[in-house]
Amino acid sequence: MSKSAVPVNLTDRLSQFSELWSQKKVAVLNDYEVKLAKLKGEFVWHTHEDTDELFLVISGRLTIQLRDADVVLEPGELFVVPRGVEHCPVAHEETAILLFEPEGTLNTGDAGGPMTKVAETLR
């Protein structure tokens, strides 16, 4: 069986790390990365000027603060933050998410700072 024929088990991949706010790349689709992350607490306000950002909640609950409203996501729900829209993810409990965004997209967008991390690849 070729490597490309092996499915990615999200539960297994999530069990491989406990670090919060650190994206882990689990697949690549064309020029896009599929990433997992565990979140708890509040992130930083930031913008991605050149790309939309898809958040899919696997477990827990995620609030995506926008300047004009909050979007609350439960497990199985997703939301796309449009490019250029300032946002701040908040998780009051540990929350597992899947992200879909272009390769090389920084987690902190234009904000930078100490929470900026390059996505590591999980195998």
Question: How are the elements arranged and paired?
Answer:
Blueprint: H1 10-14, E1 24-29, E2 32-42, E3 53-59, E4 62-66, E5 70-73, E6 78-81, E7 87-102, E8 120-121
Quick rundown:
Helix content is 4%, strand content 45%. The chain has 123 residues and is mostly beta strands. Strand 4 (62-66) and strand 5 (70-73) form a beta hairpin.
Key structural traits:
45% strand, globular, mainly beta, 1 helix, Jelly Rolls, 123 residues
Write up this protein.
InterPro entries: Cupin_2, PKS_Associated_Protein, RmlC-like_jellyroll, RmlC_Cupin_sf. This is Cupin domain-containing protein. It holds the Pfam family Cupin_2. This protein is mainly β and 123 residues long. It has a single domain, classed as Jelly Rolls, CATH 2.60.120.10. The chain is 4% helix and 45% strand. The chain has 1 helix and 8 strands, in the order αββββββββ. Strands 1, 2, 3, 4, 5, 6, 7 and 8 form an 8-stranded mixed beta sheet that branches. Strand 4 and strand 5 form a beta hairpin. The chain is globular, with a radius of gyration of 14 Å. The mean pLDDT is 91.
